[in-house]
Amino acid sequence: QGPPPVTRYDLNKVTVTADPIKNQEHILILTPMARFYQEYWDNLLRLSYPHELITLGFILPKTKEGNQATAALQQQIQKIQNHGAEKDRFKSIIILRQDFDPAVVSQDESERHKLGNQKARREVMAKARNSLLFTTLGPSTSWVLWLDADIVESPPTLIQDLASHDKPVIVANCYQKYYDPETKKMAERPYDFNSWQDSETALKLAEQMGPDDILLEGYAELATYRTLMAYMSNPGSPKDLAVPLDGVGSTALLVKADVHRDGAMFPAFSFYHLIESEGFAKMAKRLGWQPYGLPNYKVYHYNE
Ligand code: GDP
Ligand code: MN
Q1: What residue's CA is closest to ligand 1, atom 26?
Q2: Does residue 14 lie within any of the structural domains?
Q3: 204 part of a folded domain
Q4: Any idea which ligand is nearest the CA of 112?
Q5: Cα 197 to middle of ligand 1, angstroms
Q6: Quick one: which of 31, 176, 197, 208 has the most CB atoms within 10 Å?
Q7: Which domain holds residue 222?
Q8: 85 Cα to the center of ligand 2, angstroms
Q9: 19-37 per-position pLDDT tens digit
Q10: What percent of the chain has pLDDT over 70?
Q11: How many structural domains compose the chain?
Q12: Does residue 136 belong to any structural domain of this protein?
């Protein structure tokens, strides 16, 4: 008995098209997860892209909270993969536990978003995303969908809708629903400010920074005057309007696998004074892949 046969994959035959269902294209959905939200899982199950073409990958920190989230996630996976209807089961599921420490920052929204905590947090997030990506990207993967663990509502056609634009990198607009005590009605507000078009001011600020310094978006202390996709949403313009971007958030981000294969990842260091998903957009662009965003196509973030 000789050695096992060599498996050959011809990457030319892995198509990446605007009609991924027709072409049976494999999707890798990647989620770094600090907390498990049932609403995230239920929304994931509602995705109408054929589940047999979807591989799920998760990475969770080795903290008490991370252990709890892992247990909850595994319980839901069991339910679907072992007892769910055939059509609901995913092709495969991979869970990684982080082999480095999480940033020593509380997971509460107000703490997470303090400017002083951002650099350490985004570094850890970048490493988590890279570990997850480099261990799960396979030879038959056509697309990678980055979907945060606190995205609790999206159109069920999320994958098809984003892919239909046939862009190398494309991001949805991440909003948050909240109760407005003044109108006594539910309302929505922008949540993710990491998707933007650059400004002269931001470029000048970056020029004056030290080599390890990073620019962050959404902080009054750091006025960048970038054009934020969060504020480009307009009911008067078409739902499928796509705008070129220089920075992207990764709450619901579809990437052609070839962009990652070319080497575009999430820098855990200052890359053109950008870090993590914003650095990723820059790296993709430097590799010749222009990122886009959909201002009128919304997904919704959990409200703590
Ligand atoms: P924010 O929405 O910008 O405040 O960022 P989040 O805290 O929601 O982080 C983005 C994503 O990464 C979410 O899916 C989190 O569950 C997840 N996450 C946050 N911190 C960690 C961490 O230390 N390790 C891992 N593996 N995932 C994390
Ligand atoms: Mn979040």
Answers
A1: 60
A2: no
A3: yes
A4: 1
A5: 24
A6: 31
A7: 22-301
A8: 30
A9: 999 999 999 999 999 999 9
A10: 99
A11: 1
A12: yes
Instruction: State the CATH number of the domain containing residue 77.
Output: 3.90.550.10
Q: Could you give the dihedral angle defined by the CA atoms of residues 132, 265, 146 and 51, in that order, rounded to the nearest 10 degrees?
A: -60
Ligand nearest to the CA of 62: 1
For 46-95, the pLDDT digits (tens) are: 999 999 999 999 999 999 999 999 999 999 999 999 999 999 999 999 99
What is the distance between the alpha carbons of residues 285 and 110, in angstroms, rounded to a whole number? 32
pLDDT at 36: 98
Q: What ligand has the least distance to the C-alpha of 59? A: 1
State the chain's mean pLDDT as an integer. 95
Residue 75 and residue 219: Cα distance in Å, rounded? Answer: 38
Cα→Cα distances 156→41, 189, 230, 252, Å: 12, 21, 21, 13
Pocket of ligand 1 (CB under 6 A): 31-35, 59-61, 98, 102, 112, 124-125, 128, 148-150
Is 17 inside a domain boundary? no
Cα(269) to ligand 1 centroid in Å equals: 17
Judged against a pLDDT cut of 70, whether residue 105 lies above it is answered with no
Q: What is the ipTM of this complex?
A: 0.98
Q: How many helices (H) and strands (E) would you count in the chain?
A: 8, 12
Q: What does the pLDDT average to over 86-109?
A: 88
The DSSP letter of residue 5 is P
